[in-house]
Amino acid sequence: MSKQLVLNKIDHIEKELQQLREMIKSMVENEVTVTLFEPQGINEFYERALTIYGVTREQILGKSRKTKIILLRQLLCYFLHDIRDYTFDGIVEITGYTDHSSVIHSSQKIKTYLQTEDAKFMLYWNNFKDLMK
Q1: How many CB atoms lie within 10 A of CB 7?
Q2: Which pTM was predicted?
Q3: What is the pLDDT of residues 76-131, one digit of tens each?
Q4: With contact defined as beta carbons under 8 Å apart, do 71 and 118 qualify?
Q5: By the 8 A CB rule, do 86 and 39 touch?
């Protein structure tokens, strides 16, 4: 490779890096939040929760301690971890939990409900199980 060709490539790379720096600086200054993706099926989960139980996405991701919202939140964690193979830390970012131990607890609760076939839980499970594939 000629010296001039190498210098041209270096110059091109430096220009691209400068553009990236400016873009990142702009994003930081404007506090831009970037969401790369949402897990497959999560929108259907929220839509079904709204249709069947009248519970919105914001309520599920919020801090409510109502039983039906807690169960839906736990179902969401189980769905993302055990069905979609997301990491606990990844689920924390998606759901807004404060740490991964809450996600672990939620997922374990659903497993317990499934093993014991808890009557109240089974009503929720039957409404969501076709999403759990």
Answers
A1: 10
A2: 0.67
A3: 999 989 888 889 988 888 887 888 999 999 999 999 999 999 888 898 898 888 87
A4: no
A5: yes
Q: Could you give the 3-state DSSP secondary structure of residue 50? A: helix
The total number of residues written for the chain in this structure: 133
Written as one string, the DSSP assignment of 65-91 is --HHHHHHHHHHHHIIIIIT---HHHH
Measured distance CA(114)–CA(119) in Å, rounded:
10
- Neighbouring residues of 60: CB distance < 8 A, sequence distance ≥ 6: 46, 49, 69, 72, 73, 76
Give 129's DSSP letter: G
